[in-house]
Automatic annotation (TrEMBL):
It comes from Qipengyuania gaetbuli. PANTHER family: HTH-TYPE TRANSCRIPTIONAL REGULATOR, HTH-TYPE TRANSCRIPTIONAL REGULATOR ABGR. Signal peptide: none annotated. This is LysR family transcriptional regulator. Keywords: DNA-binding, Transcription, Transcription regulation. GO terms for molecular function: DNA-binding transcription factor activity; transcription cis-regulatory region binding. The keyword Transcription applies. InterPro entries: LysR_HTH_N, LysR_subst-bd, WH-like_DNA-bd_sf, WH_DNA-bd_sf.
Length: 293
């Protein structure tokens, strides 16, 4: 157990590039962290960091040790949790759209096989979420494919496509105008929109469309929340876009009307687990539950 403690201290120093920051995170003194690293270096007969008054630079030995230390610490944490509680716990980081439309139905399906499992879901910027997965502080990432396209550490992830469907433009049934036979540019220019996207998402749009949105100061409202956009559309002459399956349910209930989005944009969501977590059946089953929706 003492060596696990030393590895935990090493992992924090390496990740934070600072003895002081590691001490603060672990709520220890600077001296305690320094002694732990010295003990690890002496025990393994390898220098792990080159230290100066202003920097902490990992050696080649540290670079080799770090990913294995992360794996070992994560494995130990999982074993400790399972022994102590006999309970499965899954941590998920996601974009807002996936939480609203796809994760909570998957939880219901997952609970039929694992009724005692604990599931924690939170949102986080995609590039930060990638680090959480690499450090094994989360188990599953669920993001739009545009986010995965620029996400770091993809070589250490196993990705599975869970959703791939077209977007529909939705509006309230009493909407005063005929929206059919309009180009996307005309619709963006002549109507007000509430879109469940962020400026980061817009960075992945085609250059011509990005320029158009910037020049026309569109959309009027950006809300990283599909439910909020739906409620705005129901009560005004705003337009929004929704994944086809979600829009079709609202249309079937008579709550909204819809037309195809006149552009080749798709709601494409994938789930990622750490490449070394592929044999964990609960994680794979949760992803299967998402695919089955």
């Amino acid at each position: 157990m003492d060596e696990m403690r030393l590895l935990r201290h090493f992992e924090a120093v390496y990740r934070l590039s600072s003895f002081s920051a590691a001490a603060r995170e672990l709520r220890l003194t600077h001296s305690a962290i320094t002694k732990s690293i010295k003990a690890l270096e002496d025990g393994w007969e390898a220098q792990l960091f080159n230290r100066t008054t202003r920097s902490v630079i990992p050696t080649e030995a540290a670079k080799k040790l770090y990913p294995q230390a992360v794996e070992l610490l994560a494995f130990a944490a999982n074993v400790r949790r399972s022994v102590a509680t006999e309970q499965i716990e899954i941590n998920i980081l996601s974009g807002a759209g996936a939480i609203e439309g796809y994760i909570h139905p998957a939880i219901l399906k997952f609970a039929r096989r694992y009724p005692e499992a604990r599931i924690n879901v939170a949102t986080m910027q995609a590039h930060l979420a990638a680090d959480e997965l690499l450090q094994r502080r989360t188990d599953i990432l669920v993001y739009h494919d545009t986010s995965f396209a620029v996400m770091p550490h993809k070589s250490q992830m196993r990705l599975t496509k869970v959703v791939d469907e077209p977007y529909l433009i939705v509006y309230r049934p009493e909407f005063s105008s005929d929206l059919r036979n309009n180009s996307l540019g005309d619709l963006l220019l002549h109507y007000d929109w509430a879109l469940p996207v962020s400026r980061t998402f817009e960075d992945f749009l085609p250059a011509k469309l990005r320029t158009f949105l910037k020049n026309e100061a569109a959309p009027r409202y950006r809300l990283a929340n599909q439910t909020a956009c739906i409620e705005l559309v129901k009560q005004s002459d705003l337009l929004t876009v929704l994944p086809g399956s979600l829009a079709e349910g609202l249309v079937a209930r008579g709550e909204l009307s819809a037309i195809p989005l006149p552009a080749d944009f798709r709601f494409a969501i994938s789930a990622a687990i750490h490449d070394n977590a592929g044999l964990e059946p609960a994680l794979n089953h949760f992803i299967d539950c998402m695919k089955a929706l």
